[in-house]
Amino acid sequence: MVIDGLCDLWTSWGLLGVLVAAGCCLLVAWIMRRPPNFPPGPRGWPLFGVSKAGQLAVTEWIPKYGDIIGYYRGPVRVVSLGSYDVIREAFVKNAEHFSSRPRPLNPTLATYKTKGVVQEPYGTTWKEHRKFTLMSLRDFGVGKRSLEGKILEETRALSDEILKKENQGFCISNMMQVTVSNVICSIVFGSRYEYDDPKFIRLIEAIDHFFSIPRSGSALLPSLIPILRYIPAVNRNFLKLREVEAYIGTHILEQIQEHEATFDPNDIRDLIDAFLLEKRRRQEDENTTFTEQQNILVVMDLFLAGTETTSTTLRWALLYMILHPDMQEKVQQEIDSVIGQSQDPSMAHRTQMPYTEATLTEVSRLASIAPLSVPHAASNDVTFRGYHIPKGTVVQANLWAVHHDPQLWPDPHRFDPARFLDDAGKFVKRDEVIPFSIGRRVCLGEQLARMELFLFFTSLLQRFSFKLPEGAPVPSEEGVFGATHSPVPFKLVAVARD
User: Which ranges does the record mark as transmembrane (predicted)?
Assistant: First the structure.
């Protein structure tokens, strides 16, 4: 029995020794695999890397490591750029090295020949489809007065919905998302939805769910380490994300199939029709990238990029107006002076409204709804500011750090539109405000988003004053971080203006 006990003890200690030795080997391998002259940064855990690498954590590292930080997220090498100067130098001056995309987190998407526009690596396919998409957006009104009419149509529909809640406390989130989504629907699908359409409501809920799922730290690990996808305790968000993406993709496929059934090459109704026309033109080319799968992905890119980000920015704008009624009044005074009550806002009014422009710019800066933007990737080995960055390294722009840099913005967490006004009250553009990123991969929906933000914001404040419900607690200005930075749900009261 004593011998058996000693054997058990030896076995236990032997097993422990093996585990310790294996751990040491992993640790050594982890340290040794960090490329020479790689940017400094936290080491993280072997295999798993840095557990917390969201925008707040990465920004907190800057005083210690500088504005070029290297670390691992799971097995993925990441370089974070934390100042405007380094982001501009990388994405503009060294665009040929830093304009690609990393391998998609969705393992199914990673196997596709093409990956839409947003996730497509830098190269011929990306250039071709970005050019096609931008031309199609222009053809269907982006940047033109024809689209202004569609946006204003949605502002009137939104105003009608708000009037049903007049003088009542309500949450405007769903209304706002439906309204903004209808604009992109008119461009992509050629039609709009009613607010109570059950199919549309489910689609909006899916999009909202897509953006609320965390994308940092442990939530990403199953995407980066395949074996973790089979562990229920850690794969929950991964499975939710795949489920939501599949639902949105199915909805888009149904739209494409309906368009194919009624397609007329002499009557191009929307972006899906434009894609189908280009697909038919190239059907003899065996290497064509204008496929049904690519059609789904391009439409999904536009739908996701063109809904949540704009509606979230508008919700932040209304929150700041509620919290700063004096600033809301200044915006309304400018609206009354320049536009009045007898006509709709127009993009032509924008240059005459410096305070409104400053207010929307400050919303974009302070809210920073895409705090880490869409990640780039190094397309080749490159030396950047003395550091070695290997090919394939994920390169992220920390827009949160730029927009909250106290050296650029005194008291950076305070809402203050006057930052963008000179002594004469004229609007002063600041290059350091980059909510759509910069360089070759700048958001392709930037022009549409700027139109929507100005027209929706001015239309709402032309017709309503917004305030907190009586006795309601003051909403927090600290948002919730998912794929975007969203305000905590809040209620408001809309009072129709005389």
Answer: 12-32
